[in-house]
Amino acid sequence: MSAAREKLKSARRIVVKVGTSTLSYGECGKFKLNLYRIEHLVRELVDLHNAGKEIILVSSGAIAAGIGKMGLSEKPQTIPENQALAAIGQGVLMHIYEKFFAEYGQTMAQLLLTKDNTVDEHARENSRNSLMSLLQMDVIPVINENDAVATDEIRIGDNDNLSAMVAEMIDAEVLIILTDIDGLYSGNPKIDSSAKLIHEVAEITSEIEKIAGGAGTKLGTGGMFTKIQAAKIAVQHGITMIIVNGQEIGNLRRVLNGEEIGTVFV
Asked: What is the rounded distance in angstroms from the CA atom of residue 66 to the CA atom of residue 172?
């Protein structure tokens, strides 16, 4: 076991980011939310919290939930339409999270952030104070970008970068990004059968950046490129980041047990 993975076993303050592709069935399921995965994720988070970890969840999925609620066949192209769907879907998503967290006896809180909340000094301090107070109250914060009011000028652009900014803001030790792929590969595994999983990245070089592509799914805003951007933010502030497959139940605990799955950025 590498030193970086050994360190994960003792991490106390952990940010977990989960992507839309992990939370929903996508086109084949008419963009409905995957309740099986959401419930198992919540159960794992609560169990980790019961074991003494401080957990912050950064969750995508509001627009997908809105699309499913409205019975649309695809994601709209305009910002106002997506903002409207986010406003519809955010309530749907939080209702589901609240139900599952309550089932396991855990209080959660919703926070919607924009870039201003992480960059502007006064707003950043208020956001940090709110998050720290929630952690002290043994509450699990569930964070999303405020897509319903954000515009191109203020939106962070994806929850990968948001999760890294949140991790830096609250001095987290670990950032775990749950996605629909096993980690960072040497090539695109969907088209390159010789692509190999990279288990550990000691330095984010230009070569590593070139490996990253565009958005991975029709519903998601971030592909591997935004995850590399998030990794750069994390490692610059002394935070270990891991990309791991969130569609396999139990991977979150396996990562924190130091198992060699996913890609760890030292």
From this structure: 31
The b-or-e profile of 36-53 (16+ CB within 10 A means b, else e) is ebbbbbbbbbbebbeeeb
For 228, the domain range is: 3-265
* Amino acid, single-letter form, for residue 259: E
Answer whether 0.85 is exceeded by the pTM: yes
Sheet of strand 13-18, all strands in order from the earlier edge strand to the far edge:
108-113, 140-145, 54-59, 13-18, 174-179, 240-245, 263-265, 200-201
Q: What whole-number distance in Å separates Cα of residue 207 and Cα of residue 99? A: 44
pLDDT (tens digit, 9 = 90+) per residue, 171-211? 999 999 999 899 999 887 778 888 899 999 999 998 888 88
Secondary-structure breakdown of the chain: helix, strand, coil percentages, each rounded to the nearest 5 = 45, 20, 35
Number of structural domains in the chain: 1
CATH code for the domain of 8: 3.40.1160.10
Angle at 212 between CA 209 and CA 216, to 5 degrees: 155
Evaluate whether 22 touches 11 at the Cβ level (below 8 Å). no
Q: Which residues contact 131 (CB under 8 A, 6 or more apart)?
A: 56, 111, 141, 166, 169, 170
For tokens 């809105």, name the residue.
66
For residue 28, the 8-state DSSP code is G
Helices (H), 137-223: 159-169, 206-211
Closest CA to 42 of 20, 62, 59, 61: 59
**C-alpha closest to that of 243 among 89, 7, 50, 19:** 19
CA pair distance 49, 24, nearest whole angstrom:
24
